[in-house]
Amino acid sequence: MIKRPDEINEIIKKFDRIGKDVIYAGECITGSVMGEQPLDWDLYTECSQEQIREMFPDGEPIGKRTTRLDYTEFVESQHVNEADHFDGVIADLITLQGPIEEQLAIYDFTCEATGEHANGSIVDPYGGRKDMKQKLLKPVGDIREKMKKHPELAWKALRYVGLYDFDLNRDIYEAIKSNKELISIVDKELILNEFTIAITGPYAGKFLKMLKGLDLLEAIIGPEGKSSVPRERKEYDKLSENIGKTKPIPLRRMGLFYLVFDKNYKKALHYLPQEEETLDYLEEAKRLCPKLYFCKNEEQLKDFIASMGWKKYNFYDKMLKAQNIVYELDNMQQFARDEIIKVILHQHQPIFIEDMVIDADDIIEAGITDDPERAQYLLELLLTPLHRDVSNNERDKLLKFARAFNKSRLRRTFRDVKWVR
């Protein structure tokens, strides 16, 4: 008997009280057997929809034969290097029409076309349990005909590869190969969703290898995103080999994937309809990751953090660490940067404008300028001496720098330069 969530057990108890059996089937079986905690559950019963809705008045009607119970709660990450997720389950209560074996025939793969009664007895007309044990994805029915009508099935199959380490049986593999053109023009949002799930799965590397082997990369990055640069091909292979060693954070793994396509990076990134936050972090990753890598002292790191903020610093820092893992690079530079950050935090060194002992009003009151915008501009310039020497965070010293920057364009332009006598 597979382990059931508390919400599903409570539903089953309600049916048990009226003497009705419940059979759960579909992807919830696959996920449970493969060691996951599935979100979606298909529950079959002989009860009519009228009976079901009397028992569960808060249920949402989905068609004529289904009532949906949503017990999920969206948990939004408080940190960009963590993953958003749903807690709970979604249960679809489906009225049976005929034997359960007939219902199981509608599923796409044998691992889904298996059911289990509430008492633990198994219904498995297609041998799905055996296939799951062998980690072999096999179709129910004629997969070639199904994939012509529903090419999105290819992406579902590849998702199973990334999540559960399945191999595709020959029929599925050949069906994907022969329908590549249709599969590549499936709705882009659907492709993005399946891609995101697969690339954050435990077997993301196997998924990436299969994506390349099936020549479906263009469906992710577009024809203009692809290039024939040997270095990119080598980095893609290395990513496929080692991505599983990195934490399965969607945004981070997306970054690792897209950064491979160095020559046409932005074209690749924009081919699928990425979320605004993803684009916000990844559009400049190609520029900012190397910039952060070459920050070798306190001043440079504080300049970076002041311009990007802690949240983005942490993201790009973790991206660099993930790249070190994937490409098996020397991490001495990373170690040195971590040690510098520890010192900055331990000493509570000023980084942002808000950390200064003065503000724009102080610059105006000192008679340096009477223009609020100019005062704010000068305040931003003061970050340079502030980052160079923490002892400059005194009112008189900062105002002296502000006067100099206000008077001299040369002093403003070359404020980053350390003059050697």
The largest beta-sheet arranges its strands as 3-4-7-2-1-8-9
Helix content: 40-55%
Architecture (CATH level 2) name of the largest domain: 2-Layer Sandwich
State the shape.
Answer: elongated
**The named CATH superfamily of the largest domain:** Beta Polymerase, domain 2
Structural class: alpha+beta
- Uncertain regions: pLDDT < 50 for 5+ in a row? none
What does the average pLDDT come to?
A: 93
Number of helices: 25
* Counted beta strands: 11
Beta content: 5-15%
Distance between the first and last residues' Cα? 80 Å
Q: What does the main sheet amount to?
A: 7 strands, mixed
Our Rg estimate from Cα atoms comes to 29 Å
CATH class of the largest domain: Alpha Beta
Q: How many domains make up the 3D coordinates?
A: 4
CATH topology of the largest domain: Beta Polymerase, domain 2
Characteristics:
53% helix; 25 helices; single chain; 4 domains; Hydrophobic Seed Protein; 421 residues; two-stranded antiparallel ribbon; Beta Polymerase, domain 2; alpha+beta
How would you describe this protein?
- Helices cover 53% and strands 9% of the residues.
- It has 4 domains: 1-134, Beta Polymerase, domain 2; 138-247 and 263-275, Hydrophobic Seed Protein, CATH 1.10.110; 285-346, no CATH class; 353-413.
- It is of the alpha+beta class.
- The strands form 3 sheets. A 7-stranded mixed beta sheet has the order 3-4-7-2-1-8-9. A two-stranded antiparallel sheet has the order 5-6. Strands 10-11 form a two-stranded parallel sheet.
- A hairpin with a 4-residue loop joins β3 and β4 (66-70).
